[in-house]
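Give me structure tokens for this 364-residue protein.
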Amino acid sequence: MDSRLEGPLPRIAYSFKQGTFDLKSLAPHLWFEADDGWSTAVRLGGHLQSLFRRIEHLGVVLASAQSGPLSTADTWERPSFQWVSHTGEFVEPSSGAEVRLASLKSVMAVVQEVEDQQVASLQFFDASGEGGLKLMLTNWSDLDYFEALISIHGRAREEGSSRQRLLGGKGNDNDKANAMVVPTRNAVPFEERDEEGAVLSGFTADMVHPLWSGLSRTLPDSHFPGVPGLLRRDALALAGGQHAWQVSKDMVLRAMEDMVMRGVALGGAVRNGVSYVPMAFRPKHWNQCGCGQTFFGECTQFTLRRCCGSAWECWAVCHTNAKGTDEVVCLEFYDSQRRFCGGLGLSTGATSGDHACWRGWLEK
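Here you go.
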């Protein structure tokens, strides 16, 4: 715990006055314009383990991830990423977040111009240019170390690289892994898997039911554990209404609003091609905007977007609790390609009444 953060939680801000950051002066031969000129960026490379290890010295950052209709932002204090060789992932133990090396194509230091303010961040992209994780500097970050990190890991952007979502750049294959071995099971990046082609005929409920009790003990992904080729979303449909059913978007929002009014803590995660980002928070209020609805906790926010460019669906999924005595209902979200985007449920400490109320909304 940073001694500056002990006691009552201070205000966390992630925007800075204009002129705080100047990548053009800091890295005159490396910077490039991004986001149609609204941002400047520098590609980061070199030894990835060193880069991830240095993130801790940035101090307090605001971590953000999105997938399908979901996005979340959470405050992390001195995130300490560790390389786990047998899974091919960088894991942050305090938050439980994971970054898949096989899916990670580029890392950027980015400074965005927002009206008369600046937002500085590290952004992690997959091969298609989609952002998978964003670590924004805050007023409790070490800004000097952010510049030092760019000086150490800044790399020239390759000429002719294709334009990505934030001009992520292709990067250098030699820089990316520097002899780190990626396990075979992660050899195919998540976003490149043929999800629709994996749906094969011949799957039945009898193949799903014997494995259902163990589902809650697995880290959610797009594939159903134990049945090769079966998508998790399709397994829910096979399981039958006693185990899983679809929930309307409006009922999801009503259920969440009711939990806010009851003061119930929520837990869940967002998963995309690059990262898995868990969250646990007690939302205090919510706010609607044109794109969706955001629920705000003390240091965490969770957004459910009504419009995210494509169709999506939500499923209520029944699991037996850790004691094996009661059923709990969690929400799972899937995009138009039936890929798992994230989940949400009640955190430990919720009463039986809270669970009954939650389930009541989801069964409407």
